[in-house]
Amino acid sequence: MPDESRQPEKNTAAQAAAKPDEARMKRRRRRLRAFRSFLFRLIALALVVYVLLFHIVGLAVVPNGDMSPRLEAGDMLLFYRIEKHPKAQDVVVIDKADMKQRFVLRVIAGPGDTVEISAERGLSVNGNMQIEPRIFQLTQPYENGIEYPLQLKTGEYFVMADQRNGGMDSRWFGPVTQDEIQGVVITLLRRNNL
Q1: If we measure between CA atoms, which residue out of 159, 178, 169, 161 comes closest to residue 82?
Q2: pTM of the prediction?
Q3: Most buried among 25, 31, 119, 168, using CB within 10 Å?
Q4: Do 73 and 63 contact (CB within 8 A), yes or no?
Q5: CA-CA distances (angstroms) from residue 58 to 14, 63, 86, 101?
Q6: Which residues pair with 96 in a beta bridge?
Q7: What's the CA dihedral at 55, 60, 63, 69 to 10 degrees?
Q8: β-strand 176-177 against 128-129: which pairing, if any?
Q9: 93, exposed or middle or buried, with CB in 10 Å at 0-12, 13-18, 19+?
């Protein structure tokens, strides 16, 4: 007949051997839960960053000195992509697909406006001469540019560089369309000449 007093000792030894395995499994499950939680948060963060940077806001580098002295070539800008109806004096980021070039320019006039630039009067919008206190050169038409007066159609904007002498803008390539406007500049993030 088996000794009953020895059987609990065997069970206790088996239980003691099972406890480290059980503790190890609990630690492994805890690590796995922590890893899954980290992975979920990482994916959620990547999704938020993607939506922000590719659908709501964007980053642009000023390609040239046409907006000097406020914006210099190499400055980094943050722009709002959703705003596709800029107002006069908004600074916008434009991608001209036909020229394969990016521009950062100021909106002068929008759909329905009439723009005229003459050597005598300078810039006029809807018959009103424009006084631009932040522009330091007289606005002149380009010799081989577009013809004035120019009536803007629906979805068209007339944009100009702050450097009115030689800036590449609507005087040269004509009005830009709403589709070419990538967004309205929100702020300057980094100066190039720091």
Answers
A1: 178
A2: 0.78
A3: 168
A4: yes
A5: 63, 15, 16, 16
A6: 101
A7: 130
A8: unpaired
A9: buried
